[in-house]
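Bumping my old thread because nobody answered last time. Still need a sequence for this structure:
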């Protein structure tokens, strides 16, 4: 009987000393496994007298049970301890304030300007800029809009001051980005390939007109540029901008004093179920004015129209931003409503590039 007591105290001690699963398993095999010490003892029962066996049998069974339950208890307490340890390191204070969101966002106009700049850069167009306070000459005369020309009235011009009153050349808030054509050609001559995005001003205010809005001018001058090049460039642009391959355009004959011939350009859309979808269906949406640069315009920028020719276009940035991002009211662009800006704004680090994608 004393060996049973010895076994018991030996294994219970080993069990309580075991510090991980593997050592518990080792103790289990040594004690109560098939070839363990308790099993060996049980084999000896056969050699005992019936009296001895009556005592030793139950004692060995009890020993086996006791060792097994000690093993299980130790296993459970080790698992508890391991869980405790994990909970300590993986602890999360749910009462802490949440991680702050990046303050501010990129305005859709800025985003779209970046997008179109990336696309036209890929097509070989550089970016040019001009002043928002323009003089009469660049905004009108140089663009073949002489004084008293009806186009001056159509532009709802903001005048800075009147020439007649103080004898200075009249300044206006530019009514379009076309004066940048003149300034660029004056400075750099031909050939050239530029876009000029920026703010323009007209005295007008309703759901689709604001007194300040944005245009992007395009200008490509070389020896043999034609309307075909214009059409290709615009179709490439719209396919990339709206991310729709093979988007259709429609050129409608029109009139601008600074281009001849002139065309207004529409893109394909559908209005089905009151929902505007770009690039399908048989509806059309006007997005820009364009044409072949008028010889008089080249002349006023000191470019020889006998040698050079090219196309120009002017597109509403706000307009294409509204179409691409489903923004219904133009005026909201300039309301500085923080809720609107959070909803329609773009993450500051999502810089659009041709390689990584334009809108994400
Ligand atoms: N400047 C014109 C406008 O504001 C657009 C345009 C630009 C048309 C260039 C033709 C060529 O309406």
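Sorry it took so long. Here it is:
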């Amino acid at each position: 009987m004393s060996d049973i007591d010895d076994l018991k105290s030996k294994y219970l001690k080993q069990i309580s000393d075991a510090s991980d699963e593997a050592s518990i398993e080792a103790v289990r095999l040594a004690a109560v496994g098939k070839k363990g010490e308790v099993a060996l003892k049980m084999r000896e029962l056969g050699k005992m007298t019936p009296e001895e066996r009556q005592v030793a049998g139950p004692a060995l069974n009890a020993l086996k049970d006791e060792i097994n339950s000690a093993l299980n208890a130790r296993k459970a307490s080790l698992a508890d301890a391991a869980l405790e340890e994990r909970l300590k390191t993986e602890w999360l204070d749910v009462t802490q304030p949440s991680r702050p969101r990046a303050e501010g966002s990129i305005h859709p106009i800025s985003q779209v300007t970046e997008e179109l700049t990336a696309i036209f850069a890929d097509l070989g167009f550089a970016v040019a800029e001009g002043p928002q306070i323009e003089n009469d000459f660049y905004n009108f005369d140089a663009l073949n809009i002489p004084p008293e020309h009806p186009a001056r009235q159509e532009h709802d011009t903001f005048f800075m001051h009147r020439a007649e009153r103080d004898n200075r050349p009249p300044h206006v808030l530019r009514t379009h980005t076309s004066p940048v054509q003149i300034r660029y050609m004056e400075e750099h001559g031909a050939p050239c390939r530029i876009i000029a995005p920026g703010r323009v001003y007209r005295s007008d205010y309703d759901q689709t007109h604001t007194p300040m809005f944005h245009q992007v001018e395009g200008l490509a001058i070389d020896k043999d540029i034609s309307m075909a090049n214009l059409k290709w460039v615009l179709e490439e642009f719209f396919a990339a901008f709206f991310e729709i391959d093979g988007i259709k355009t429609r050129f409608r004959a029109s009139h601008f004093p600074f281009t001849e011939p002139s065309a207004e350009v529409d893109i394909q859309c559908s209005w089905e179920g009151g929902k505007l979808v770009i690039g399908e269906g048989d509806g059309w949406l006007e997005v820009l004015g364009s044409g072949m640069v008028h010889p008089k315009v080249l002349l006023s920028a000191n470019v020889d129209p006998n040698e050079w020719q090219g196309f120009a276009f002017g597109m509403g940035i706000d307009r294409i931003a509204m179409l691409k991002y489903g923004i219904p009211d133009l005026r909201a662009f300039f309301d500085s409503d923080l809720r609107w800006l959070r909803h329609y704004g773009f993450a500051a680090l999502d810089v659009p590039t041709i390689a990584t994608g334009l809108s994400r």
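The longest strand covers residues 259-270. Let me know if any region looks off to you.
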